[in-house]
């Protein structure tokens, strides 16, 4: 785990200042135990207050925190006996997507997740979590392997989006993501998807179709990044905070909209402050959800999965009917006279 003190976010400054005061008191070897106890309570309350009232843009910053646990951080903390599987048997092994067999509690599972990298060299190799087509092809091959042997699939989503370069487009980026969407919607095995950090665009959707879609409390999930949205609408990425609020991309918003099924709480002060606690909470959620899903027979599971995604979105039939009626009235008012009417004249 990285030293988060080196990467403090602007709104975390009061927390770090209080932690410094607490550390100075504790160096006095407990000469003021009551004051230390009181300061610890104040610190916990401050963390709770700040992180319970984050603005959408602040949530984006937390989801991108360099110290936030990534897929490879969760693997040893959540799963046992992980065996990584490489390559797509066509182009290569995309490091932006990690796949492998593992044990989750007493069950064998297939794990698929994005990986951003921790330092510059890793991030360059992983392209900051932006996968090429071979990454999504690798994920699909491993998920089909899991389906063949009846293994549940766990997907950990953490990407700003699929790789947008020319090489990715030349190799069929859009087509393979579409293929993944279709295949995952029909796979005859339980699938649990969790957004652990960033959930951006088609890059997230490429491994994001399942029976359960959950988000960590301070993650985001959106059709576009705030910067991309701001550039399109207001011609400048400086309006990213405004776009983040308009997109309603936080876990609270998406739960209220019915896009996701669950919000997984994070440790006090967010996941970057305590990787082990974050992993423990995530593991408990995965085990509980998997226990519920395996109770369904496969046909019922697929029917529920289909119905879940068909139910996403809100529309008003009355508005549609009214619009159609208005169009019909307008069309009849401007229609040319009929041939019979012309002949009678």
Q: How many angstroms does the end-to-end distance come to?
A: 89 Å
CATH structural architecture of the largest domain: Alpha-Beta Complex
Briefly note the structural class of the backbone.
alpha/beta
Q: What's the oligomerization state?
A: single chain
Morphology call: globular
What's the CATH class of the largest domain, please? Alpha Beta
CATH-wise, what's the superfamily of the largest domain?
Answer: 2-enoyl-CoA Hydratase, Chain A, domain 1
Helix content: 40-55%
Secondary structure tally, helices: 16
- How many whole angstroms does the radius of gyration measure? 25 Å
Number of domains: 2
Strand count, sense and barrel status of the largest sheet are:
8 strands, mixed
Query: How many beta-strand elements?
Result: 8
Amount of beta strand: 5-15%
Order of helices and strands: HHHHEEEHHEHHEHEEHHHEHHHH
Write a brief structural summary.
The protein has 345 residues and is of the alpha/beta class. The protein has helices at residues 13-26, 33-52, 56-63, 71-78, 120-126, 133-148, 166-170, 173-186, 201-205, 226-234, 240-247, 251-257, 275-293, 298-310, 317-334, 339-344; strands spanning 80-84, 97-104, 107-114, 153-159, 191-200, 212-216, 220-222, 262-264.
Plain-language structure description:
The protein is 51% helix and 14% strand. It is an alpha/beta fold and 345 residues long. The chain has 2 domains: 47 residues; 250 residues, 2-enoyl-CoA Hydratase, Chain A, domain 1 (Alpha-Beta Complex), CATH 3.90.226.10. Strands 1, 2, 3, 4, 5, 6, 7 and 8 form an 8-stranded mixed β-sheet that branches. Helix 3 packs across helix 11, helix 4 crosses helix 13 and helix 10 crosses helix 11.
């Amino acid at each position: 785990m990285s030293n988060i003190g080196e990467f403090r976010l602007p709104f975390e400054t009061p927390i770090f200042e209080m932690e410094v005061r607490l550390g100075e008191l504790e160096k006095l070897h407990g000469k003021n135990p009551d004051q230390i106890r009181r300061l610890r309570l104040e610190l916990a309350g401050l963390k709770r207050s700040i992180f319970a009232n984050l603005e959408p843009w602040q949530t984006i910053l937390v989801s991108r925190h360099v110290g936030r646990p990534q897929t490879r951080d969760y693997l040893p903390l959540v799963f046992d006996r992980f065996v990584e599987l490489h390559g797509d048997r066509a182009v290569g092994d995309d490091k932006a997507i990690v796949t492998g067999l593992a044990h989750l509690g007493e069950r064998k599972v297939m794990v698929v997740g994005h990986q951003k990298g921790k330092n510059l060299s890793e991030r360059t190799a992983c392209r900051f979590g932006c996968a090429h087509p071979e990454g999504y092809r690798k994920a699909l091959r491993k998920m089909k392997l899991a389906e063949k042997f009846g293994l549940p699939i766990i997907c950990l989503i953490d990407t700003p989006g699929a790789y947008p370069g020319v090489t990715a487009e030349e190799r069929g980026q859009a087509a393979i993501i579409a293929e993944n969407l279709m295949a995952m919607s029909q796979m005859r095995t339980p699938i649990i998807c969790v957004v652990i950090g960033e959930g951006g665009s088609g890059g997230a959707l490429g491994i994001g179709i399942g029976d359960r879609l959950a988000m960590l409390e301070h993650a985001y999930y959106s059709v576009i990044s705030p910067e991309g949205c701001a550039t399109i609408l207001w011609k400048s990425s400086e309006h990213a905070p405004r776009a983040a609020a308009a997109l309603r991309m936080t876990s609270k918003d998406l739960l209220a909209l019915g896009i996701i099924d669950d919000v997984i709480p994070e440790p006090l002060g967010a996941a970057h402050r305590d990787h082990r606690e974050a992993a423990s909470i995530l593991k408990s959620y995965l085990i509980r959800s998997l226990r519920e899903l395996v109770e369904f027979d496969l046909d019922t599971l697929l029917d529920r999965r289909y119905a879940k995604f068909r139910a996403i979105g809100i529309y008003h039939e009355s508005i549609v009917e009214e619009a159609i009626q208005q169009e019909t009235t307008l069309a009849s008012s401007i229609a040319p006279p009929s041939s019979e009417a012309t002949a009678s004249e």
